[in-house]
Amino acid sequence: MARTRDEAAFAARQQKILRAAEALFVERGFHQTGMAAICEAAGMSPGALYRYFPSKAAIIQAIVQEERADAAALFARLGAATDFRAALVEVLVEAIAAVSEESYARLALEIAAEGARDAGTGALLAEAEAELHAQLTALIQAARGSGQISTTVDPAAAALVLLMLIDGATGVGAGVPAPKPAVLRQTLACIVDGLFADDRSSS
Asked: What tens digit of pLDDT does each residue of 110-145 get?
């Protein structure tokens, strides 16, 4: 009789491997990190590790999938918001704080570089970006339909601008002092108000 896999234990070991790999990718870079180093950091033999991830590319793709799920969950909070603009500002504050960390920026750079080299990783990154854009576009469309933002807003264009804002913040905190949270929040509120303003009022 075949043994039933303990899914919780399997997932926990996957997480251990991913966190160990992330730390090494940030410290050494993707191509300077061998599977042997990941095995050592995770405290596993090569045979054991390969049961969870057959390659470094598989590891980095799993990290991309985690980021994809986290981003989707973050933006999903907007769907239940009664004040879309205020909720969006808070989501942006949280997202920008996360991506502006130096360690995140280094890992994101390694992932992007691997995406340019590896077709599978590149396709996954493009798919994740398209999915997030579609999700945010739908949320903005819904907010427009419920009267929370101007009917003149182009949801797809607005979603793209917001994603560019987040992507552009990646790693900025490493070279530029981050503004105080209150200042960042106030600045983002001005951006959001301007983005969703009724352009007919200025004509």
From this structure: 999 999 999 999 999 999 999 999 999 999 999 999
Pairwise CA distance, residues 40 & 48, whole Å = 11
Per-residue pLDDT of 68-101, as tens digits, reads: 999 999 999 998 888 999 999 999 999 998 888 8
Cα 83 to the center of its chain, rounded Å: 23
Query: What is the tally of helices (H) and strands (E) in the chain?
Result: 9, 0
Question: Which residue among 39, 54, 69 closes a domain?
Answer: 54
Residue 127 sits in the same domain as residue 151: yes
Distance spanning both ends of the chain, measured CA to CA:
75
Could you identify the residue written with the tokens 């469309």? Answer: 141
Residue 36: give its domain's CATH number.
Answer: 1.10.10.60
E strands along the chain, which residues? none
Shared-domain flag, residues 27 and 72: no
CA 92 vs. chain centroid, Å, equals 12
DSSP string of 90-106? HHHHHHHHHHTSHHHHH
